């Protein structure tokens, strides 16, 4: 009994190459998009209660392009009653005060530059007044070995903050409910301490990454169906 061997024709080889390229492209998009989406400086928790206290953690996972981060200078918005930077062995702290004696900016300088593939974070305790605005933006200047990135953009009314190239971290302020002083702020701070990575990362990275994977799989299905019709 004779046996026949299958030798793919150039056309079939070309179709297989397109299928492989579609799979690789979808996988690359699924990995690359979350990386870009998580490049922002984030703050957690992103909500506090008027008149209460809380601990804010500012996190980042990338430097300026591919340059390690050396410092973060965070400008304080109006409406804060108190600011207490958290002492950390990995950072030195420089506090600037306004004419009223309140903290106007805090600069955290890393003892060793933070590589672009590692997550860095700094924190501070803040106190809010009863009349604190319903939104607090914290402009951040990220200094690196080479270059600087200013996270200072603030979304206008009706504008999607995720559409901004370099948004400032923003904390929303909820009205006091009178059900227990500090309960909401404390719960938010505890949740951020227990799950720091989850609190810092934006869910848009996961959503866009899933979209990239779906696009890759759709391209694979189309290529396979086209191959079946032509073979």
UniProtKB/TrEMBL annotation:
It holds the Pfam family DUF1775. The chain crosses the membrane at residues 204-227. Residues 1-39 form the signal peptide. Residues 40-173 form the YncI copper-binding domain. Keywords: Membrane, Signal, Transmembrane, Transmembrane helix. It comes from the Bacteria. This is Uncharacterized protein YcnI. It comes from Microbacterium saperdae.
């Amino acid at each position: 009994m004779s046996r026949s061997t299958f030798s793919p024709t150039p056309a079939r080889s070309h179709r297989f190459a397109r299928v492989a390229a579609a799979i690789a492209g979808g996988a690359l998009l699924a990995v690359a998009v979350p990386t870009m989406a998580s490049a922002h400086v984030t703050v957690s928790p992103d909500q506090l209660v008027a008149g209460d206290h809380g601990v804010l953690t500012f996190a980042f996972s990338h430097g300026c392009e591919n340059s390690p981060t050396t410092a973060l200078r965070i400008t304080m918005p109006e409406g804060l009653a108190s600011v207490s930077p958290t002492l950390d062995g990995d950072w030195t702290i420089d506090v600037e005060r306004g004419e009223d004696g309140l903290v106007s900016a805090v600069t955290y300088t890393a003892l060793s530059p933070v590589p672009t593939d590692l997550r860095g974070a700094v924190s501070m305790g803040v106190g809010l007044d009863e009349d604190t605005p319903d939104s607090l933006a914290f402009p951040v200047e990220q200094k690196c070995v080479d270059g600087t990135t200013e996270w200072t953009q603030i979304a206008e009314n009706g504008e999607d903050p995720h559409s901004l190239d370099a948004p400032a971290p923003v904390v929303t302020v909820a009205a006091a409910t009178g059900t227990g002083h500090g309960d909401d702020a404390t719960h938010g701070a505890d949740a951020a301490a227990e799950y720091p990575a989850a609190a810092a990362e934006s869910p848009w990275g996961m959503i866009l990454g899933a979209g990239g994977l779906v696009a890759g799989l759709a391209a694979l299905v189309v290529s396979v169906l086209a191959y079946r019709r032509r073979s």
